[in-house]
């Protein structure tokens, strides 16, 4: 049985090929990721890895519950996990405050589950 840790690890390892796959399967989301990555000074791969790390560190209980439900109901839980984390990062309120540097992050993620939609990215 695949664990959530296995899925998160696979998502981290596959971040480098994510943009090419995303461009073919979800062109609008791919455009948003590339644009936001450029605005933040990150490569696309760096942005995807930051999205995974930020979700892991800053997502609240409702975000995690939604993610687990999405993965449970999915025929491709690894892909949906990665899509959900990237979407969360793109739509998180105060997203500019999210960073890997703990000393620079004044508080956890703000905003409720209604501010982010996991639907429509499958």
Structural class comes to: mainly alpha
Strands, total number: 0
The number of helical elements comes to: 6
Average pLDDT score: 74
Residue share in β-strands: under 5%
Gap between N and C termini: 22 Å
- Specify the biggest β-sheet: none
Low-confidence stretches: 97-122
Proportion of residues in helical segments: 55-70%
**Could you say how many structural domains there are in total?**
1
Radius of gyration, rounded? 13 Å
As an assembly, this protein is: single chain
Order of helices and strands: HHHHHH
- What spatial form do the alpha-carbon principal axes imply? globular
Key words describing this protein structure:
single chain; 122 residues; mainly alpha; 63% helix
Q: Which helices and strands, and how do they pair?
A:
Blueprint lengths: L3 H10 L1 H11 L1 H14 L3 H15 L2 H12 L4 H15 L31
């Amino acid at each position: 049985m695949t664990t959530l840790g296995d899925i998160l690890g696979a998502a981290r390892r596959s971040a480098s090929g994510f943009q090419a796959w995303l461009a073919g399967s979800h062109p609008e989301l791919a455009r948003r990721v590339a644009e936001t990555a450029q605005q933040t000074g990150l490569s696309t791969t760096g942005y995807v890895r930051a999205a995974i790390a930020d979700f892991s560190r800053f997502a609240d209980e409702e975000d995690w519950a939604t993610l687990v439900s999405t993965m449970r109901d999915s025929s491709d839980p690894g892909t949906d996990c990665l899509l959900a984390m990237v979407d969360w990062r793109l739509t998180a309120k105060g997203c500019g405050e999210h960073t890997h540097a703990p000393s620079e992050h004044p508080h956890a993620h703000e905003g409720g589950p209604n501010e982010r939609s996991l639907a429509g990215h499958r």
